[in-house]
Amino acid sequence: MIRLLVRAVVALTLAAPVAVAQPQAVTVFVVRHAEKGPEQPDPSLTPAGAARAAALATMLHDARITAIFASQYKRTQETAAPLATAAGVPVQVIDAGKTDALIAAIKALPGGHRALVVSHSNVVPAIVELLTGEKIAELTDADYDRLYVVTIRPDGGASAVLIHYGVPSPGGAAPMRE
Fold first, then answer.
1. CA-CA to 101 of 20 to 30 Å: which in 6, 13, 16, 42?
2. Kind and range of the H or E element at 83?
3. What's the rounded Cα separation, in Å, for the pair 8 and 10?
4. 95-133: per-residue pLDDT in tens?
């Protein structure tokens, strides 16, 4: 009787599908802050910028964002705020001049996480390049509609895709790479 019970348990164990957790990629959405006002030195978003920030929140609503990073400036935090509120995720502030700290924080995210990074026109290309090894086209002062989707695979490899969101920036679509 015991042999029959042992055989039954072994047979059920061998027949049951084994669920093996597969390593997952980290997805990072990298954007420049939305349109800013003229005041100095730390301008807020203009009405057009607030609309773009809302468009970003709408676009990423179903992305299951788990981390949000922004620089110390109002315009980046205001760009991130609608999504942070909707997702219930706090904005982690990392100084705009500390790109290495930002990259380290992103690379420390566990597999399966999805992050939003809101930075500046002169920093976004460096962030994408540091994460992927791919050199992308520089952003101009008029480029606000670029959103780079970076996928960091479990093997350490990474790639980026450029998409546009909100009202198109003047000058039309920019190339992904220089």
1. 42
2. helix 74-87
3. 5
4. 999 999 999 999 999 999 999 999 999 999 999 999 999
Task: Select from 127, 107, 171 the least CA-distant residue to 145.
Answer: 171
Where in the chain are the domains?
32-164
- Name which CATH class applies to 32-164: alpha beta
Instruction: Tabulate helix, strand, coil % of the chain (nearest 5).
Output: 35, 20, 45
Q: Which of 135, 133, 137 is CA-nearest to residue 151?
A: 133
Whether the model clears a pTM of 0.90, i.e. scores above it, the answer is no
Burial letters 4-32, b for 16+ CB under 10 A, else e: eeeeeeeeeeeeeeeeeeeeebbbbbbbb
Q: Which burial class, exposed, middle or buried, applies to 144 when counting CB atoms under 10 A from its CB (0-12, 13-18, 19+)?
A: buried
Residue 49 CB neighbours (<10 A): 21
Report d(CA 51, CA 64) in Å as an integer: 21
